[in-house]
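ok so i was messing around last nite and threw this chain in just to see what happens. nothing serious, just curious
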Amino acid sequence: MSDVDDFGGSVYRQARLLFEQGRIGEALPLFAESARAHPHYKSYELLGDCLLREGRAAEAVLPLAAACALNRGARPRVLLARAFLQIARVDDARFWLAAALEHHPGYGPAVDALRQLPV
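result:
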């Protein structure tokens, strides 16, 4: 069992399966439950991803910020930037994309997102 599987047990695994099947609305509350019971960056990251996919960008900010605080990976930073961009906070989006690139220079999704930001 991997570290990611350990922290959330069966609730996380069930949420992850639903997420991979595209059943975002069903996965969302399970990721929230997993994050409450066993705070881990991946539960927060995927919770925020679900919220973004559901069009709930403002609600995605806190779980994505938690994922960024708990892990240095680029992906949660790019997702957080997308959330900020969707709520018209371009400067915050730019900051988080730069943070993603600081941790992972050349990370494709961050580079692409930066190119698409308004000047």
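not much to say yet. The chain has one domain: 3-116.
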